[in-house]
Design a protein that fits this description.
Elements: E1 2-8, H1 17-31, E2 35-41, H2 62-70, H3 79-85, H4 88-97, H5 107-114, H6 122-135, E3 139-142, H7 151-158, E4 162-166, H8 169-174, H9 180-192, E5 197-200, H10 203-213, E6 220-222, E7 243-247, H11 256-267, E8 276-280, H12 288-300, E9 307-310, H13 315-323, E10 327-328, H14 340-347, E11 352-355, H15 360-366, E12 370-373, H16 378-389, H17 392-409, H18 412-428
Parallel strand pairs: 1-2, 1-3, 3-4, 4-5, 5-6, 7-8, 7-10, 8-9, 11-12
Amino acid sequence: MKIVQFTPGSGDNFYCENCLRDNLLVRALRRGGQDALLVPLYLPGRLEDTGRDSPAPLFFGGINVYLQQKFSWFRRTPRWLDRLWDSRRLLGWVARKARMTNAAALGATTLSMLRGQEGRQKKELDRLVDWLAAERPDIVCLSNALLSGLIRQIKRRLGIPVVCFLQDEDEFLDSLPEPYRRNCWRELAVRLGEADGLVAASGYYARTMQRRLEMSPDRIQVIYNGLELDGYRPAEAPPEPPTIGFLSRMCLEKGLDILAEAFLLLKRQEGFRTLRLHIGGGRMASDGDFVRQVENRLRAAGVLADVTIWDSFDHRQRRDFLRGLSVLSVPQRQPEACGLFVLEAWACGIPVVQPAIGVFEELWRLIPAGRLYQTNDPETLAEALAEVLDDPARIREWQVMAPQRMPEHFSSEATARKLTALYERLTAV
């Protein structure tokens, strides 16, 4: 089966769960014998993850999308000029320096993209569908619901099934200013109604989107994201001194400041004087001021020397990062649909301390390795972290139990098998 998976590239600047999931999924599908191709939108991804020896084409390049949204003249420019703005080097530089993905500034563009052929990026959509017609895939998969504006034209021109994944779109859409928030949710319901299959990353998120979109429960199938588990293993010995880790985008929404304050509270206690904090996951350009504020707070408290920020977070480096931890915590402020960092920590035998919101309660029912806490503030988090760190016997139990249970629930092979079965049903119709 020939499968094209469109993924919104993040420029590889931060821990993007959608991008990581798409990369893992395409690799697993190819290992399972499918002809799967990963195609980036907006910003380029890593070459080795596309499924080809040469880069897959980039569509809806971020600069072209912006220019076509703002200036009508760019909606009629020839392809040779558009190609200049789609330079991977230029887009990579813009992703690091500019604030192209600030949600509050993207309301009009998001609505335009959801409107597809009626939007201001029609030229980009026509180019994408022309390429698909030449490739002749059996099925097209979209990384998230914000890409659902592509569905109608793909089905109209190619007559093939389109599947759309659902993962954390609500946080982005709810951050948009009115009237864009309301109009985008309304347009999203229409466009997703045209998809042949909808796949949510968790039961929690399936219920959330069912309610928000006023959709029948049987329209959304739940398939958990999975990891390539062969590369993960627990550390041979616990780190000394004990180390708390944070692995996600370094931003306010993910609660890095909450964890930093909890770390300061623990450092004041006699038993945790030597405690260390490791921070990884990258950042967007718009996160710079926030990260500097967190660093300044840690510096003013005199503990910055006990904090390490990991700038790189590719697959190998994430595993090394995790094996150097005693416990992981990402105390994010909003509910999460997937929690890929939790799965990565468990695969390395690392317990996780998380707020009892979103998918985390669902994950804990499958692999209860760590602690959930109710009130997402530094004091409550510090208490939960202390309880875990003060129980080395339980940590050793979790170190064995969590990796053993991962293959049953969260392997990329299991995810690929379930999705392949879905794709086969849809293409057989």
